[in-house]
Amino acid sequence: MRNSGRMLVSIFLMVAVVFSVRISAEAVRVLPFTSPMDYSISDNWLYDGAYPENSVDVFIVAPTVDTVSESNSAITPKYKSLFRNAMNQQQAIYAKTARIYAPYYRQASIKVYTMEDAAAKEQAMQNAYIDVSAAFKYYIEHKNNGRPLILAGFSQGADMCYRLLEEYYGGNGERAVNLRENLIAVYAIGWSMTQDMITKYPQIVPATGETDTGVVISYDCEDGTVTDSLVTPAGTKALSINPLNWRTDSTVASKKINKGTVTQDSKTGAILSVEVGKYGAYIDPVRGTLVVTDIDTGKYPKILDMFPDGSLHIYDNFLFFVNLQENVQKRTESFLQKKAALNAA
User: Fold this and answer.
1) Do 241 and 217 touch, CB atoms closer than 8 A?
2) Could you report how far apart the first and last alpha carbons of the chain are, in Å?
């Protein structure tokens, strides 16, 4: 990432560069989906157990890649191509640890986030979730086979992970108990977790350290000047964890402990460069967002007008990539050690 041009190659929303005009917020009628996609069909899975040598699973939900549709995506070859490019980058965080399952789904497009009609906006998100929920249910019933599980998603994908926790992981039913007992962690990055969420859904448990399990890892990056954003609106306080020092307070993590900021090929996900010790971070005491230190935001453009100046949202994974990758391994090891100890007792 020695210049902004090279950085743009690395980001999952590369397609958004050609969509840099202001997104229309005109009223759109969003009809509810009447049925989900059929996940018994193999073509409806992008990754269907990739890296089978790994002993645990990750069910990963893609971020927003559709910049064209008025509400929800149609599953077209072009959409699948964009989806695959984004996920080739996302999966690299988990590939050393878990076998990967990632469904195609009719996600809410970028335009949905600018809708003025809150009911229409939520209907588009519910439409997306009907697919994600169906995919997860099929995965649990036909693919998981009792293996420990990581849930993961970035941005819209993180929102979908919270919805999975809400629907499947609460209460004392046998399925919910088994899912909680088998949950390594949830990496819901780029969509804020709040106190209201965990009060309403106590199965959403914020991470408090580097190796706790059954918890949610969440943060969204800014430069310290942002006061209002789509991810963390003004007046909202996010519950975040710092991916460098794994603290939830405002202690500054030095860039010296950043093990690698990366660039990736925008199609294959291949790592193009790794720079150690590039950026530090701390949690904003008011907003709860993750403030990145030592960064030149001119090299990290917001790309879309829906984000405020100073937002680093689309770089959340890339800035601390190696630390995240190693943490997935550490939390998995911690989970497996705890499980072995329980089985031995």
Assistant:
1) yes
2) 50
Please tell me what DSSP assigns to residue 17. Answer: G
Q: Which amino acid is at 338?
A: K
Q: For 311, which DSSP code?
A: B
Q: Are 313 and 251 in contact (CB under 8 A)?
A: no
Global pTM value: 0.93
Count of CB atoms situated within 10 Å of the CB of 334: 17
The Cα 218–Cα 295 span in angstroms is 21
Residue 4 has pLDDT above 50, yes or no: no
User: How far is C-alpha 159 from the chain's CA centre?
Assistant: 8
Using CA atoms, how far apart are residues 191 and 203, in angstroms rounded to an integer?
17
Q: What separation in angstroms does the CA of 289 have from each of 19, 170, 180, 228, 238?
A: 27, 27, 27, 11, 6
Are 257 and 194 spatial neighbours (Cβ–Cβ below 8 Å)? no
The closest alpha carbon to 224, from 303, 309, 137, belongs to 309
CA angle 41, 45, 48 (to 5 degrees): 105
Q: What is the CA radius of gyration of the chain?
A: 19
pLDDT band at 26 (very low <50, low <70, confident <90, very high): low
pLDDT digits (tens, 9 = 90+) for 129-184: 999 999 999 999 999 999 999 999 999 999 999 999 999 999 999 999 999 999 99
